[in-house]
Amino acid sequence: MRPTGYSVGYERSTVLLLSLGFGLVGLDRWIISPLFPSMMKDLGLDYQDLGNIIGALGLAWGCAALLIGGLSDRLGRRNVLVGSIVLFSLCSLLTGFAGGLASLILIRIVMGVTEGAFSPTAVAATAEASRPERRGLNMGTQQSTFALFGIGLGPIIATQLLRVVPSWHWVFGIMLVPGLVLAFFIFRTIREPHQLPAFESAVNADTADGERVRWLDVFRYRNIRLAILALCGAMTCIFVLSAMVPSYLTDYQGIGTSAMGVIASGIGFGAFAGQLAIPGLSDRFGRKPVVIAALLMAMGMLVGFIFQGPVVPLLFLLLFFVAFGANGCLAMLAGTMAVESVPAGLMAVAAGTVMGVGEIFGGGVAPSVAGFLANNYGIEYTLYLALGGLLLCLGGASFIEETAPKKTGLVDEKGPGVTPAPAQ
Fold it and tell me: What is the pTM (predicted TM-score) of this model?
């Protein structure tokens, strides 16, 4: 039986547009990594600078996700989504005009703020539009494009554009156009929560006793605290690999730029596949067992990558399956499991909180630590930092309580899907 109040057409349009939006977020954020070998020569930068540039964006993203995830309830989902897309697209253009480390860091901080505003708002909007039995798949689809465009297609796009445009500056400038086009279509399509009958009824049910939800309320839920811990580990692995693997392949493994782009794209394609498959499988088999199995696989593949020599097909496949497991779990922890663990009125706040803290640690602190390791001990040691992140994620995820509607039996025919477990 289909839950009442849901529009299948609006659900599909929302998932499509916000998937493209999150893909553009990934592309604008990560295209700097495969371009960095060229930027190093022109701007006199080193590995520590790369880690700091990426870390500054991650810290800004995390802080913005914490603050603006819940603020979109007041400002409106559409206003935050459209405004953030326009601004981070402009920041990509400005990156091409940067003349040194200071300007790069400043521009990427602003980009981090705008992308941090977009991400939890997009997660909440996708959850609000989705039928309960398709929430895992829809939210996995929406988040999967971040890796597909940013880390999968990004290295290929960057290295190929470098062959036809005058310099790396032009590559960043081109990123402005798709952002403006997508902002227009999101403005025309996305609705606010109060315009969605199914979501509105769920919020009314959650607040029927007269209580008002607050941001700090999310920390009362055990799953949220554990998801934050686990996501810090997952993001450490993902962002350290995304930032350092291109330079690791060229400088340590001695692989050429074109082959490097192909191998590094394995992270993006694997993440895309994992963020589609793992949330979809979790709709049927449960969130927790699928997450744990994926993490164990990712750890095994990363160990293989660490000891593998410069064989392009094998390195690609190993990175593919590392990202398949790690990013698939990221989509679950930051999206589906977070919003299913709290009342409907806390969805955006929960997604923003989990994503924000994970970004501050995994996306902000970890790349800077990786840059320090690379500069002082050798870039190959950054891979062990990524492996430690997966171990931390496994530890946190092992204690999370199941949230899948089919497994908990808590499907609400009128609301977004799950009545969360009591706060602990």
Answer: 0.74
